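Homework help board

Subject: predicted structure for assignment chain

Our instructor gave us this sequence and asked us to write out the predicted structure in token form, then describe one feature. I got the tokens but I'm not sure how to describe them. Can anyone check?
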Amino acid sequence: MRAIRRFTVRTVLPAELHDLDELSLNLRWSWHAPTRQLFSGIDPQLWDSVKRDPVALLGALGPDRLAALAADNGFVERVRAAAADLHRYLQDPLWYQQQVAGGEALPAAIAYFSPEYGITSVLPQYSGGLGILAGDHLKSASDLGVPIVGVGLLYGAGYFRQSLTRDGWQVETYPLLDPDGLPLTILREDDGTPARVSIDLPGGRVLHAHVWVAAVGRVPLLLLDSNVPGNDEAARKVTDRLYGGGGEHRLQQELLLGVGGVRALRLWSRLTGAPEPEVYHTNEGHAGFLGVERIRELVAGAGLTFDAALEAVRAATVFTTHTPVPAGIDRFGRDLVSQYFGGDNQIPGIDVEQVLSLGAEDYDGGDPTVFNMAVMGLRLGGRANGVSLLHGEVSRGMFNGLWPGFDSREVPITSVTNGVHSPTWVDPRMAALEAEKLGLDELTADTASSGWLNPDAVTDAELWDMRRELRGQLVDEARNRLRRSWRERGASPAELGWVDDALSPDVLTIGFARRVPTYKRLTLMLRDPERLRSLLLDPERPVQLIVAGKSHPADDQGKRLIQQLVRFTDEADVRGRIVFLPNYDIGMAQSLYPGCDVWLNNPLRPLEASGTSGMKSALNGGLNLSILDGWWDEWYDGENGWAIPTADGVEDTERRDDLEAAALYDLIETQVAARFYDRDERGVPGRWLQMVRHTLATLGPKVQATRMVADYVHRLYGPAAVAGRTLNAPGFEPARELAAWKQHVRGDWSRVRVDHVESSGIREVPQVGDLLTVKAYVSLGDLQPGDVEVQVVHGRVTEADVIEAFTAEPLELAETYEAGRAAFAGSVRLEASGPFGYTVRIVPQHEGLASVAELGLVANA
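My token output:
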């Protein structure tokens, strides 16, 4: 008999144990080993059976057990000490507060929007790298004291649970989540009723959402839930599952995330007294409508025009793009978006065409019928970035059409390379070894990690014993998961005796785990099955592979790749050396990364924006074996792993895959396995451990998410806060003035031109050290000389007279004439030999511009 309603009843704790409630609800426990040990010590078997979930653990304890714990003075004292430690962590001044005390102009609060968050497997609100990155961002912000407020959606079924059929086909199930059984609290009004936000929908419908709060250390994470009374059935399903729908369903999710998210922030500040965010950071384009809501607030509350409000909003907005794959960007039909911002839903004072212009692909090669969420993110983001140096370069080329006339190198998209939250991903035993021998923790990693280069601090024998212990832990975990997977596939216990001997704690272990879009090439390792088989079964230097990953439910091509791999792993002769583990999640990852000796990554270059799984492996002493893409292109140094050669220029994808797979096999056989099995008389691989030490010492500090968040603070959040404060001054006069100035410049730019350029000062045969003098005569129409910057652009040229690596230097106003004409002059010292060229251009200039390319206007000679 099915229940008509389901809910979770939470335990009432004895007064002596009241602090356990706070400790269970603050997700710091997910990366703070002492707190986890406190909970696991209550009942280790029960702790494992509830999947290491403190809320579920407390709910599973009976009254007698709670009474016994309350009477245990030693345990009560440990609980109080843990609570006191948490309170110190939440209240003490940390790195960010030191920066503010040192005089740096930083925001009082930062809003961080993301469609998914991977914080702990207990809160399954993530699908892959984007969510894990968001979770690590919040955790590291908490550790540094950065005053971030996270905003997202609470999905009723999260992503999905993956299992396999007998023939290896992926099957998705969606276990329903009860918020009352999760480490969340609902935001309530002063009278105790649940607080809610509301959004008008077409046809007179209204979408309501409650706001749940997850405490991520010092960071509150606001999660909007549409499954609430007062919504019709369709509206209740808006937050039913992560990435579960397309079209209008996805648009409604993104409206709730962006528009509803801003309204949730206003609720949060009103009810808690928290400061209003000064900077808004949108993690990928899904939350882009937050900018439209903030524009609406300023138009309605401050009487600004759309253009003036847009400038005020842009100044304090940071946009991070995560995909170099156009297919990964959400695009909606203009007609569909019009239904939500036009007609009866039109925002007072804002025309629907103004909203549509934000996401319009009105550039060469664009589709005029669609609304592009990434394009809106870039137009609303005064500062934008990719997530690795290479991805920044790819993004500048990908979105160059938004800044016509400028070289892709000048497109205003910078990069902040991703990092990972080491307390989450470093195995507790590895962390304990680092703390004991090196005094190393996540906040001192940049200075203390060089201790790994001292073989007396941690000996080779100690390091090798630790690596074998972690590998053995992974083998045990993999066998358990493998057995469970085969049972779900219909195998009987009598068929599974081989699982007891699958994998080995003494064999070179290579890991590969990630989402399964085509470009990540899950099955590249299968291009030559016999070559792979010979590597796995080598009698002297065997290799074992542990593979995991989920395909999007609608991606049948990705599911076929999984099936192809699973069918190979099922073959009787290799199944002890290669396994596919279904339902890849944080819980699996936390044993997979530490236990692998090598982390494999073989995407189609340059389609990996950053990737972070290899970083997590590196922090545990793993070496990377990867295509030079994403972060690895930036930080590979020849001693921290291996770079798989790429067949650049080969357009036949099948041929390219064959070539790169062959290179992969060769590397594993001749270099990776050879070095792993090169042992001294003690059985220790000294040369291998040299690479491990080098990785931990030199790569370890770089891949920290604390480094990443500090980069965001200094390079993006701080400047955005200063720009926002400037334009949001009382009366918003600076925003009004900037909007009017831009309108004037755009309206008159067609009359701006370089009329004539003269040069002098160099001899007949120019030499290094000569001073080239340039004078440019220009026409500015109705613009004033102060509205523009006239630049001489110079550098080395190709045979086609294209300036390759160039420098742009301003020329000074020399003379003014009638009819808007002027002369600008300056000089350039020739500092390098070889072919040299220069040109002159005019660009807009205003103190409110974050980049000379911001308006996409340029007049070239």
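Reply (TA_rk): Your tokens look well-formed. For the description, you could write something like this. The mean pLDDT is 94. That's the kind of observation they're looking for.
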